[in-house]
Design brief:
single chain, 297 residues, alpha/beta, seven-stranded parallel β-sheet, two-stranded parallel sheet, 51% helix, globular
């Protein structure tokens, strides 16, 4: 029996993953700001522990992780699901809106991860699933601030993967596309009240489109939850897991775009190295070794 620790588990992906994990016979520590909302959604279960957790409260994150280990002895899977969106042009978003978003989507994820990691390191095993987004692959008008938080999640997960793999702990950034959840509802999406006319054709059109798309997205959240419950048994999990046909298409498009830029600008890119006489002494392999040594120092 594995023990799951899931943030934002009262609704959306978090609740569905918790339900699937319980159905698979696993134990679930489901967290939310109001733990009563978890039992209202999932009911009573001998393998379910509902815990109060505001992910922006680091002390509360450590207390929740301690409660999980006291109840079930270990934490095998951490699902960093808590988060929300912000819709509006970069200039339209206020400093307060941006800071609040980062406190939950980035600093909250860090707080919970740092609280759980000592237990996983002690076990020399564990899986971390960080809920990123197709917006962690590419950004777009109207969602620039939100996507920047998911870009941060991608970078953190990639580093965690490198740091933790030798310890038997694996980290993966899960990249859902548009799934039929409440993400575009007011319960999960904050919309900047400021509206600048110059952005009507870009961020403004995205605002209008979001209302139409909500609850008509192509992705089935129940299928995503089932995939993730199965995924944690994969022996060699990838650092990134794209989910949804739209994320698959975006991954291909982003890769092709990066290669196209490199093809057109490769000469400029490599022109910034030292001249050829230096390159002979400091070839690519040695330069890379020197760079990695500097990073480790």
């Amino acid at each position: 029996m594995r023990t799951w620790f899931i943030t934002g588990a009262s609704r959306g992906f978090g609740a569905l993953i918790a339900k699937q994990a319980l159905a698979a016979g696993d134990a679930v520590v489901a967290t939310a700001r109001n733990p009563a909302s978890i039992t209202e959604r999932l009911g009573q279960h001998e393998n379910l522990l509902a815990v109060a957790l505001d992910v922006t409260d680091e002390a509360q994150a450590h207390a929740a992780a301690k409660a999980a280990v006291e109840r079930f002895g270990r934490i095998d899977v951490l699902v960093n699901n808590a988060g929300y969106g912000l819709l509006g042009a970069v200039e339209e978003a206020t400093g307060a809106e941006i800071e609040a978003l980062y406190r939950t989507n980035v600093f909250g994820l860090l707080a919970v991860t740092r609280a759980v990691l000592p237990h996983m390191r002690r076990q020399r095993s564990g899986r971390i699933l960080n809920l990123s987004s197709v917006g962690g692959l590419r950004s777009g008008a109207g969602f620039g601030i939100y996507c920047s938080t998911k870009f941060a999640v991608e970078g953190l997960t990639e580093a965690l993967s490198a740091e933790l793999a030798p310890l038997g702990v694996f980290a993966t950034a899960v990249e859902p596309g548009y799934f039929r959840t409440d993400f575009l509802d007011s319960t999960s999406l904050s919309i900047s009240p400021a509206s600048i006319a110059d952005y009507n054709e870009t961020a403004g059109s995205v605002r209008a489109h979001a209302a139409v798309v909500s609850h008509n997205q192509p992705g089935d959240p129940n299928r995503l939850a089932k995939v993730l419950v199965d995924f944690v048994s994969a022996p060699n999990p990838p650092v990134r897991l794209p989910l949804g046909s739209d994320t698959a298409a975006a991954t291909e498009a982003v890769a092709a775009a990066h290669l196209a830029v490199l093809k057109d600008w490769r000469a400029v890119a490599v022109s910034t190295d030292f001249p050829a006489e230096g390159a002979a002494a400091y070839g690519p392999t040695r330069r890379t070794r020197i760079w990695l040594t500097w990073l480790a120092s």
